């Protein structure tokens, strides 16, 4: 009788162990299935990004390879064509080096508006074009610019700024330099107010916005430097080493981010007129996008009287960018919200909106945001 009870209990233990083992096997299979599903999902997501970005990635890889094994030439004035050069006897204290590119060889009306605002704000202008200029535009530019220059369409803005600094002997005779370009519409508000505010704060190196992409840095479409920065060896060494490159992402990593890091390593703290910390407090931000001037374009104007809209907002590439870095619903909502840009600007500025509409119609990939978020 005792043996029968013992055998019965043993069978019960074995059955329990078998049940536990079966449950464990089922759990392991479920976990393995879930893991495989996650791996496949992650692979498909990365494959999607790779297929969309692979041409740029190949270009970046080639630039890195050339940079590692081949020495590309440094940017210099010898590659530029100087149409007009005025002497350094200007009564103005600030120099603006303006980098530009035209799709059809004609300077857009929105650029003339920006240049006029810079001129009236007390800045001498060095106009550096990465595309051929029309004779009529050269004549008009010469009436108020210190330099009018054509250069090869390589290395984007940084080669233009490098040439402008070389021609002006590192902005000799000026107390400050502004590096900017034609990638923005505006200004919608008085630039003097912004410049005076930042200079009163004692900021020696500043921009309008900063980005946290890869590393914290000033966004290069608008960068201001005071004389003590211009005279530093870090500044001179950085611009001395600018080379002819074509990869946009490579230039961003090596020069845009590299510039801020080089200045920070030299002891110069850089500031943004609208810091990332301030931006994160406002609604309407496109999460997942580290470029705040794109991620919250209209809220920047509404909450901070931001003076510009990036031209790239009105392009098919930006719409693709939205769907790449955000989920489809968020991307659709944000694209739709941008369709209110006319109403937003009309409420705060007298800037002629037809300048934006005309330029977008000239852009090869120009596209106005639509209210339904698709097209």
Describe this structure in words.
The chain has 375 residues and is an alpha/beta fold. The chain has two domains: 77-274, Alpha-Beta Complex (Spore Coat Polysaccharide Biosynthesis Protein SpsA, Chain A); 276-362, no CATH class. The chain contains 15 helices and eleven strands. Strands 1, 2, 3, 4, 5, 7, 8, 9 and 10 form a nine-stranded mixed β-sheet that branches. Strands 6-11 form a two-stranded antiparallel ribbon. Helix 12 runs antiparallel to helix 13 (328-337). It is globular, with a radius of gyration of 28 Å. Mean pLDDT is 82; it is low at 1-7, 48-54 and 371-375.
Mean pLDDT, to the nearest integer, reads 82
Helix percentage range:
40-55%
The N- and C-terminal alpha carbons lie at a distance of: 83 Å
**What name does CATH use for the topology of the largest domain?**
Spore Coat Polysaccharide Biosynthesis Protein SpsA, Chain A
Name the CATH architecture of the largest domain.
Alpha-Beta Complex
Strand content: 5-15%
How would you describe the shape? globular
